[in-house]
Amino acid sequence: MTAEVCLSPILVDQFDMRGKNVVIIDIFRATSCMVTGLCNEVDRIYPVASVEECLRLGGEGMIMAGERGGQKIEEFDIGNSPFDYLSEQVRSRRVAVTTTNGTQAINKSEDAYQIIIGAFLNLAATVNYLVRQDLDVILHCAGWKGTINLEDTLFAGAVLDSLGDRVQLKDDACQLARSLYRDHQDNLLGIAKQSGHAARLAKFGITRDIEFCMTQNTYDEVVVMRENYLSKL
Amino acid sequence: MTAEVCLSPILVDQFDMRGKNVVIIDIFRATSCMVTGLCNEVDRIYPVASVEECLRLGGEGMIMAGERGGQKIEEFDIGNSPFDYLSEQVRSRRVAVTTTNGTQAINKSEDAYQIIIGAFLNLAATVNYLVRQDLDVILHCAGWKGTINLEDTLFAGAVLDSLGDRVQLKDDACQLARSLYRDHQDNLLGIAKQSGHAARLAKFGITRDIEFCMTQNTYDEVVVMRENYLSKL
């Protein structure tokens, strides 16, 4: 089993995803929200590229969720906070979601054998699933508008560290991510709070989202893409 | 003084280089060669994008240097080994050079206030110069055909670590680079040998180049771009 790390969707053309598991990583906050929702009785999540597509699915009865630039879209039912996905409002419902970075990374991974949604919230379950599948894996960091970010790279490093000797690191970005994780594993929240993305979110007063998203193994389920929606395995 | 790290020329559009010092980093081997040559009586080095342009300058009496895919170009006088730049052949001469990654990174940095050529071979001199200038700095890693590589990121991290409190880290890639350096500073050669690029070079039997390029502070000079050529400060 080999691993590669794509540190930004801008670099995605350098990767051949065919036959591989691709883990989508957008810790602040898209993939953390997806995991939270589906592990709390949201039925399905449909990631879509545009606000318009979300509104269309809203017209068909779905919950409309998402953000642009970190803030809730006005006409939408919920924003991009994991706490939105813990509310009564979304239980047993289908959610259509669009976000700045996370849904873009999903769309750019369509060649994958399977798309898996990664978050610290279900890190161990995701790693165990990767081990059971024993397929080559690409850790695809969503970043922030093309730039590389700390929290997604940290998560990629955490996965590689957990995989240990069971994985062969195929590119230099793997070493980079794993070093970052090892350098900060005793204070993940501290380093994550230093990320530019966390600073942007803090401006909107959502520091509790950051703390929630950096919590490990709250959930023991794996979230995957099926055709055009996400659900628990 | 702020710092940013551009981990690959593919990401360069995210950076505004105007008014900033931009350090070009292609440790294996373009920038190590440039520093070696200019600190050993090469007169000037002209970095050019194409083999054709190199041949044209060769016709005007310059030494033709460079590689494609890690190997010397057949018609050229020298390849891309720092030892080529220590030979009698190049002393007091002008050299036209084209390489896979390094010259591309230089060409993509033309908006900079000043382009500086970085290598472990003159790390301390380069850092001291950045401190004296006290301008915002972008550390521009040349990578390998667009992918991120260990040795260039390590050098960016080494610069940031040396700058210490004198610099404000402006993006998450800075933290990534500095963590990588701190994680491996006691064994830089060991980690550099694990890079994909070092493995490719080792296939050509040039392990001694790798060791040479990872040596720190052999030279005490700074190399900069002036109009269309490189020379010592």
Number of strands of chain A: 11
Topology as H/E string of chain A?
EEHEHEEEHEHEHEHHHHEE
Q: Give the count of helical stretches of chain A.
A: 9
Widest sheet of chain A: strand order?
A: 9-1-8-2-7-10-11
In percent terms, what proportion of residues of chain A is strand? 15-25%
Biggest interface reads: A-B, 26 and 26 residues
Average pLDDT taken over every residue of chain A: 94
Binned, the helix content of chain A reads 25-40%
Would you identify the regions of chain A where 5 or more consecutive residues have pLDDT less than 50?
none
Helical/strand content category of chain A: alpha/beta
Assembly state (oligomeric): homodimer
Computed over alpha carbons, the radius of gyration of chain A is 16 Å
- What gap, in angstroms, lies between the N and C termini of chain A? 21 Å
General shape of chain A = globular
Q: Largest beta sheet of chain A, briefly?
A: 7 strands, mixed
